[in-house]
Amino acid sequence: MLRAPLVIEYPFERTTGPVVGAFLTGLRERILVGITGADGRVIVPPIEYDPVTAEDLTELVEVGPGGVVTACAWVARPDARQPLDHPFAWALIRLDGADTAMVHVVDAGSPDRIAVGTRVTPRWRDERVGAIGDIECFVIEETS
Amino acid sequence: MRDVAIVSFAQSHHRRAVEDLNEVEMLMPVTREALDNIGIGIGDIGFTCSGSTDYLAGNAFSFVSTLDGIGPWPPISESHVEMDGAWALYEAWVKLQTGAVDTAFVYSYSKSSSGDLAMVMSRQLDPYAVGPLWLDSVGCAALAASAALDAGVVTREAMAEVAARSRRDALANNEYAQLRFDRTAAAVLAEPDHVGLLHRSDCPPISDGAAAIVLAAGDRARELCDNPVWIRGIDHRIDPMALGYRDLTDVPSARLAASRAGVVPAEIDAWELHAPFSHDELLLRRAMGVPDDAVVNRSGGALAANPMLTAGLIRIGEASWQISSGESERMVAHATQGPALQQNLVAVLEGDR
Amino acid sequence: MTLVLPESLRDVEAVTRVATPARLEYDFTAGRATTTFLRGILEHKILGEACPICHKVYVPSRGACPSHGVPTSEIVELAGPGVLVSYCVVNVAFHGSVMELPYVGGLIQLEGADMFLMHLIQEASPDEVRIGQWVEPVWRDDADLEATLESIRYFRPLDRPDATVDEAGHVVSWGPATRGGAA
Predict the structure, then answer these.
(1) Which of residues B164, B195, B224 is at a domain's end?
(2) In whole angstroms, what is the distance from residue B294 CA to residue B297 CA?
(3) Is A124 a member of any domain?
(4) What is the rounded radius of gyration, in angstroms, for the C-alpha atoms of chain B?
(5) What angle do CA B206, B207, B213 make, to 5 degrees?
(6) Chain B residues in contact with A103 (beta carbon < 8 A)
(7) Are residues B90 and B196 in the same domain?
(8) Among B19, B146, B195, beta carbon nearest to A1
């Protein structure tokens, strides 16, 4: 059987539009923003239209930076393309002031240190470009 | 509304990797069988619709080259959806409703063994906030399982029962399935965690395979076969794209689709649910009101064979077989796609009684 | 629609574009028909496949006859020379290209085939290339043959009277047009 490696690369550069642009601008500035939905709930990451009413959403608000894990899944063997090169947890994180959760990873060290309800905070990259990767990962919030 | 029936179904013997054939070579015996079953050729078909995505095998325009396998020249009336074949079937059903055609051919196929399926599927996510993180399809399912377990709407024990029952039923009832064995729920629970709280057995296999269905309207359906299986209702709905906006412990779009398709759970004698992960079945049962003692996935479902973008169409085909064989009278067939049960299609199928 | 930004973002330059590169790796398997073709290449042969119903010859075959929806099950060895039925002079570099500009890409109907092979046309300046021109394959040395179409380095003009190609791009006469029509 003949076989050969095949690599497909998509060198996409996307335009963001103003709402996603504001979210990414915020990341570059170490600020997390959401958008107020038609029912007053704060949606993070912000979206352009209300999923229920289809209204234009326009009011961006600052949220976080800390938040609470609403779902998590430990990854023992990460793929090289994923955010961390050592075991981590996928997490849905509801940032303080937000009513919906965002996806990111938590550098929790071990699976028993993270669960639904764990508080986390972003670890920012030094070099930020306005992309989701400006948050290197979330880390477990130090309790005082 | 025109009465539309499934008059033929064929599928491949699904395998982890079909390495000796390219996509059209893998598909051709299945499409041929679906037509031969009822003694017709592509010239007798009014409309053809297929479902697939080139990302799976990394083979650009594979959806065009696979069309060669049904003989599309001189040009036939055809269409393609980059969705599960169940949605191709929906498009064909709509075409039949217009009255423009009396017969339609639907097929889908997947040769995902060439690529890294879980990572390929990450390309369907929001390209700004999630895609760059490469949240793979297993990680995505594990997040939904985490939310559902935490909310208490599923348990690991119930998930393990689904995982075990699916492969056991495939062993008993389905020669086309890929995973056919009798492994107890206790053995599933004893497996190490795979991703999050999912055991490997809670996850579907990666499968290469194909399926094809012929639809016909009214009297044409009765001419073509002795026991057409009528589509009494069909609907599909979608939940929002943002994972964190959704309540991953529920499947509102499946509930709505079931309601719009006219599902009355007490009147259904068996269900084919496209539930790739074990918790998916539990969430779908809850959303659609499936009775606890209902017969679900006699075929073994997607946990026994999961050719991507094909396993949903197979649910419809499996239900048609179970009805035309007399095993059931009225069934629900369900298909899903998108991350964590985002999009759902529900059909009510019934024999000629 | 006017967006209301939080105060902290009002005086900073807005992000409007984002790079989202993606890389997917596959282990591609050739399948039956392509394997047959590439194994032929290893033996310095161009193998087409014919439809058992209409006997049209496809090269390289993908395995199915689009006119009949059946496997192309009859293997046919082709001599090599063919006729250029269309071509394109490439003057613009694209991402990943290693070719020196300008160059010519051609669609070639090999003698004995009913479909076209796409390949490079070289040893001819772009202004000499024409539809109907005969071309022949230039192979790598036998020792360097690999299971790839690149084992044919390119096609070059063959000194033979032009064939007649119809408007749809098919060879209708493998020789020059005669008085009274091409057929």
Answers:
(1) B224
(2) 10
(3) yes
(4) 19
(5) 140
(6) 129-130, 133, 135, 143, 243-244
(7) no
(8) B19
Each residue's pLDDT tens digit, B149-188:
999 999 999 999 999 999 999 999 999 999 999 999 999 9
Per-residue pLDDT reduced to its tens digit, C93-131? 887 778 889 999 999 999 999 999 999 999 999 999 999
A99 located within any domain: yes
Residue B224 and residue B38 in contact, taking contact as beta carbons nearer than 8 Å: yes
Interface partners of chain B (CB pairs < 8 Å, 3 or more) are A, C
Burial of A32 (0-12, 13-18, 19+ CB in 10 A): buried
Count of other CB atoms within 10 angstroms of residue B78: 15
Domain boundary among B224, B256, B274: B224
Catalogue the E-assigned strands of chain B.
Answer: 4-11, 47-51, 78-81, 103-111, 193-195, 198-199, 208-217, 229-238, 270-272, 330-337, 343-351
Count structural domains, chain A: 1
Domains detected in chain C: 30-78 (no CATH), 79-174 (2.40.50)
| B112 min Cα distance to partner chain C (Å) | 9
> What ipTM was predicted for this assembly?
0.97
The values of phi and psi at residue A108, to 5°, are -95, -10
- The answer to whether the beta carbons of residues C118 and C104 sit under 8 Å apart is no
- The nearest alpha carbon in chain A to C23 belongs to A9
Query: Residue A33 is part of which domain span?
Result: 17-140
